[in-house]
């Protein structure tokens, strides 16, 4: 069952959809998962839909929602600031904890790409979160930006574009924007996963604040709560180095899985290995009835 819902963050109305297992009994409280979409995405993307439907099928109450400025949520369009998304994720947890069908002591968080980094950071500072699933995530904003602009020439060109936009904003007082594929390059073959409802223009503040966002600094706080790190071994968008660095900073119980023959949008690629891996991890570390 799907239910359109909303909750507030920083006085903004955020839109979400709750998926409930068909066999939930009256008065029963189930474990739940908050689902965080990727960079400038939205709750209705293929990765978010896959996660929510699978979780409900496996017995969990699942919330997929739009961060502020994205999808159907309020907020300045395209204003994507990692720390503000952390605040939104915390409010999503609060909303789920308020529901009569959710066990408030058993709420996990799951994210893909940028949303994975936000999920890890949120769990690192919010002890209410009982478990974390990260797919294609990263732990240091500067490092991942350098990975996404892999040659000295590309890195310098990107830095020059960001700095030029920053100076124009400072001189004119007017917002300056960068294209999403300048901030996060995506190969042509993977762009069908990014539909027209996604954000394509981001303020320069998005790039600047990303440099200083470091889930690596807080992932160690999550233990003894379990963490699942999933990454495509040859990820074309966020290299697997990001999850390897996270794993190095994490404490038990943390599992890292690198998968071949999938890419950055693995949750939308209909690979049964991904289904089985996530399901088996949940059964072991965060089981549902």
If you had to describe this structure to a student in words, what would you say it looks like?
With 289 residues, the protein is α/β, with parallel strands linked by helices. It has one domain: Alpha/Beta hydrolase fold, catalytic domain (Rossmann fold, 3-Layer(aba) Sandwich), CATH 3.40.50.1820. 36% of the residues lie in helices and 22% in strands. It contains 9 helices and 10 strands. Strands 1-2-4-3-5-6-9-10 form an 8-stranded mixed beta sheet, with helices on both faces. Strands 7-8 form a two-stranded antiparallel sheet. α5 crosses α7. The relative contact order is 0.15.
Assign the structural class, choosing from mainly alpha, mainly beta, alpha/beta, alpha+beta, or little secondary structure: alpha/beta
Helix coverage percent: 25-40%
Whole-number mean pLDDT: 97
Strand content: 15-25%
What's the total count of β strands? 10
CA gyration radius, whole angstroms: 18 Å
State the helix count.
Answer: 9
CATH structural class:
Alpha Beta
Sequence stretches where pLDDT stays below 50 over 5 or more residues: none
Main sheet strand line-up: 1-2-4-3-5-6-9-10
Superfamily (CATH H level) name: Alpha/Beta hydrolase fold, catalytic domain
From the structure provided, what is the oligomeric state, counting identical versus distinct chains? Answer: single chain
**How are helices and strands ordered from N to C?**
EEEHEHEHEHHEHEHEHEH
């Amino acid at each position: 069952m799907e239910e359109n819902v909303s909750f507030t963050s920083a006085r903004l109305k955020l839109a979400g959809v709750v998926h409930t297992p068909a066999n939930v009994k009256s008065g029963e409280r189930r474990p739940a998962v908050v689902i965080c979409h990727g960079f400038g995405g939205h709750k209705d993307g293929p990765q978010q839909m896959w996660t929510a439907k699978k979780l409900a099928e496996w017995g969990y109450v699942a919330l997929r929602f739009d961060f502020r400025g994205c999808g159907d949520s309020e907020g300045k369009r395209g204003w994507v600031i990692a720390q503000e998304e952390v605040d939104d994720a915390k409010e999503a947890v609060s909303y789920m904890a308020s529901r009569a069908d959710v066990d408030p002591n058993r709420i996990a968080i799951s994210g893909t790409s940028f949303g994975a980094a936000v999920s890890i950071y949120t769990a690192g500072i919010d002890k209410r979160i009982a478990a974390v699933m990260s797919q294609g995530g990263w732990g240091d904003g500067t490092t991942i930006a350098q990975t996404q602009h892999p040659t000295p020439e590309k890195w310098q060109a990107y830095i020059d574009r960001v700095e030029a936009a920053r100076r124009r904003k400072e001189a004119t007082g007017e917002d300056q924007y960068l294209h999403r594929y300048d901030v996060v390059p995506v190969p042509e073959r993977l762009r069908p996963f990014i539909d027209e409802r996604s954000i394509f223009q981001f303020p320069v503040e998005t790039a600047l604040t990303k440099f200083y966002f470091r889930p690596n600094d807080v992932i160690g706080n999550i233990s003894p709560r379990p963490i699942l790190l999933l990454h495509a071994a040859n990820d074309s968008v966020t290299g697997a180095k990001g999850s390897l660095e996270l794993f190095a900073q994490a404490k038990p119980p943390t599992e890292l899985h690198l998968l071949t023959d999938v890419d950055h949008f693995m949750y939308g690629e209909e690979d049964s290995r991904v289904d089985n891996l996530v399901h088996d991890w949940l059964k072991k570390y965060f089981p549902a009835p």
